[in-house]
Amino acid sequence: MIKITDVARHAGVSPSTVSYVLSGKRSISEETARRVEESIRVLGYRPHAGARSLASSRAKVFALVIPLRSGVHVPVMMRFVAAVATAARRHDHDVLLLTQEEGAEGLRRVARSALADAFVLMDVQLHDERLPVLRELDRPAVLIGLPAEDYGFTCVDLDFAAAGERCVRHLAALGHRETVLIGSPPEVYARETGFAARVRDGLQRTAHQLGVRTTVYPCAADPEAARALVRAVLRERPEATSLVVHNEFVLEALLAELGRAGVLVPKDLSVLALCPDEQAERAAVPLTSVAIPAEELGERAVELLVAKLDGHEPPRTALLPPRLTERASTAPPRA
Asked: Fewer Cβ close by (within 10 Å): the C or N end of the chain?
């Protein structure tokens, strides 16, 4: 194993000079720093994580808080995890993944232990009990999500209200005048999770403005619940000519049940989903969809967090505009 003394000997400097180059705690001449960095590259030296942490007063770790609660679609959440972890490694950081539903206490535990330098919070609720505590801890943080109250945190998210609006405008432009939102699981709405509430509100507000009748049906994360709900919608809303689905759990079961009921998509009923592009593309009928940009959001969150750790103050809120891709599942309604 290459040691710091080997690097120092190769570069012709003292071990403490190598430490200062690595930590940045003292000013080192450009020529000396260049010589040390070249020796590190040639020898393949990798600083020990513990020693590096002590030298820099940083753990070089981000805590990603993503409680896997009921109603959370794990495959989509794991896309966010992969994006954050990949971006963190590019900045020489690791990720501590916190999936238990600990609330504020989990944040306090990590802060006390000095396990992580900063936090990325997901599954943000409109009135999130973790946020006042996170502000008290005075640790750099970025939220992937948008609370109702401005606590002064940097937030990055898809503009979910605009996504709901975009869905209705697309359907209205095709001539649809009644649509149904198959929404997130009921417990997601009960927790006032930001993304679900904003899609619903943006959709309903725009539908009212455009004179489109709309009904919201939350749907449990269960294929049988989706099948029963499809039957209820067909029975209770016979004039509806379109569905907007914001529930990745049930897309496949929903389309299958429409087929069993003899409903042709999009001839009889247009279907538009909010989901990852891959899920929309592989559906039985390729779905017109608004993408969930997990990779871009994860990368942006890490970039904003690194900027904060470097002493910069990034913009308070960064909302990505929704991107709608038209596929085979939407068309003008039958005359």
From this structure: C
In this predicted structure, the answer to whether residue 57 has a pLDDT above a threshold of 60 is: no
Do 157 and 145 touch, CB atoms closer than 8 A?
yes
C-beta of residue 9 within 8 angstroms of C-beta of residue 35: no
Kindly report the pTM of this predicted structure.
0.80
Q: How far apart are CA 97 and CA 69, in angstroms?
A: 14
The confidence band for 199, taking pLDDT boundaries of 50, 70 and 90, is: very high
Q: Is 232 exposed, middle or buried (0-12, 13-18, 19+ CB in 10 A)?
A: exposed
